[in-house]
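Allow me, if you will, to draw on your knowledge of protein folds for a short while. I have a record of one protein: its chain in single-letter code and its fold written as discrete structure tokens. I remain grateful for any guidance, and I place the record below:
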Amino acid sequence: MTPAARRALGAAGRLFYERGIHAVGVDLIAVEAGVTKKTLYDRFGSKEQIVVEYLADRDECWRAFLAPYVEAAETPRARILAVFDALRGWAEGVDGADGVEGRLAKGCSMVNAHAEISDPAHPAYPIITGQKAWMLGLFTDLAGGVASSGAAAARLGRTLMLLHEGALVAHGLRVFPDAIDQARGDAEALLDAAAARASGRR
């Protein structure tokens, strides 16, 4: 990606996240990025494709941010809790691409995008739903290390996903303080119960 295209994607991402996808036009993206509309269309082809690349970039950045947290954890339990630690770090950090304090200042970008893009035919739709499916798969895989059976791991994975997604929403809406920390604490309690059940079956 050329420097101009990277600037355009950074500007588009910031504007889409702060103002909403439908509210932001190509003209504004071009002005904010300091590029021409022709440059945008030459590189991306359409606004839809800019949205696709914005969401794909957001997903890729999150996965890259999360990976070291999970990889550094030494036990199955710690790896699950590391996902919540990463979420806290992501929420409190600064996104180097656009300088916005707190990558979750307005909640989850995928959930926000889904509120505007609910048509499965939209090219961005598979990225939105795919990101959530990936998170569920991650939690389910990690739960396999502590659950007593495959069915138990699937259920635990879904419950952990619900905690994670609830923390995202509560943090973004500022419903109450320390939503991510509370979700982590509730995850710990779930893991304790799962470990006790698994131990009882041995």
